[in-house]
Amino acid sequence: MSESTLAGQFFGAAIGLLERVRDEEAANIAAAGKAIADTVAAGGRVFAFGAGHSSLAAQDVVYRAGGLALMNLLNVPGVMGVDVMPATLGSALERVDGLAGAVLDSSPATSGDVLVIISLSGRNALPVEMALNARALGLTVIGVTSVAYATETKSRHVTGTYLKDHCDIVLDSKIAVGDAELSADGIEAPFAPASTVVTSALMQAMVATAAGDLVARGIEPPMLRSGNVDGGHEWNGRLMTEYGDRIFYRH
Question: What totals of helices (H) and strands (E) does the chain contain, helices first?
Fold first, then answer.
């Protein structure tokens, strides 16, 4: 596909970003994978949270073929955006003080667990407070965010801080402020966001690293198989039984 087409330009931009995070975030990805492996090996649990479109990358690592069975979604009702009416309510909830604390207090997350918090801007109250409260509870917090927002936008949290300021490990998605890779004559707004592509890749790279780290310790990582291949349901059922006390998306 020609780079002269808009589709070609988008693929070029996305590939460039993927290459940047692969090379520039390698050490942070390794640290995040080790933190998850440490928790799995110690019998802990792993959670992922994202609001708005950042929730897509969190959902992408939960209960999926090839995924870590112990990855759980920390759900905050209404903040995924497109699952509520009006969709703008999700954005509004991200700015509500105290919501993160209430969610964590009623969740199964506890000291020694890992929480991956995904927020492109990292500037809203919800992800900042989620990180603050999680660390106070003794969780290891991994943030996946665009660090550029911390220098080019104003925090919406009362402390003036960002998600990146309250994490044990930060993965920088390198996404430019505004999350739009293209512009063109006749199209007044910039368009073609790449944050979902890049953030999901960072999440999968982190999980893959954790799996490899566990194998190096002599521990078989509990990875789910596709339910659409022969034997997949039986394989997954065994994992659900064996790790049932650490999986919260099942009855």
Answer: 9, 7
Q: What is the distance between the alpha carbons of residues 3 and 9, in angstroms, rounded to a whole number?
A: 5
Question: pLDDT tens digits for 31-61?
Answer: 999 999 999 999 999 999 998 889 999 999 9
Question: Rounded to an integer, what distance in angstroms lies between the CA atom of residue 58 and that of residue 71?
Answer: 9
Dihedral of CA atoms 132, 137, 141, 146 in degrees, nearest 10, equals -20
Residue 214 main-chain phi, psi, to 5 deg: -65, -45
State whether the Cα torsion 23-35-150-48 is positive or negative: positive
Which residue do the tokens 């990582």 mark? 221
Name the DSSP class of 244: G
* Phi-psi group of 118: left, alpha or beta (phi > 0 → left; psi -120 to 50 → alpha; rest → beta): beta
Residue 29's nearest CA partner among 176, 175, 180, 173 is 173
